[in-house]
Design brief:
- This protein has about 100 residues and is mainly alpha-helical.
- Helices cover about 85% and strands about 0% of the residues.
- It contains four helices and no strands.
- Helix 3 packs antiparallel against helix 4.
- The longest helix has 24 residues.
- The protein is extended.
Length: about 100
């Protein structure tokens, strides 16, 4: 079992290190660079979309708070914390707990 874990760790490291080594030698095209710059935003949208599509009011309140705080502060950490707090507060108010 230890050999399997070490093997998986080695493969994971090699795939990450290989990507860095390739990008040192080969310059990605402009569209790939643009894609990589926008990837974090896409990931956040992917995390948020399923609860919003489920129609949960606390989720919609949290999303609105995240957008408002992000626009006001331009700080993603504050926006996420405020959104989580808003969802938590809304869940306590609506259903009595998470």
């Amino acid at each position: 079992m230890l050999l399997a874990i070490l093997g998986m760790a080695l493969v994971t490291y090699a795939s990450r290190a290989g990507g860095y080594a390739v990008l040192r030698v080969v310059r990605p095209p402009a569209f790939v660079q643009a894609l990589l710059r926008h990837l974090p935003g896409c990931l956040f949208v992917a995390y948020v979309t399923p609860p919003l599509l489920a129609g949960s009011w606390p989720a919609w309140i949290g999303a609105a708070v995240v957008v408002a705080v992000q626009m006001a502060t331009r700080n993603i950490a504050y926006a996420i914390l405020a959104g989580v707090a808003a969802v938590w507060a809304a869940q306590l108010g609506v259903g009595g707990g998470p």
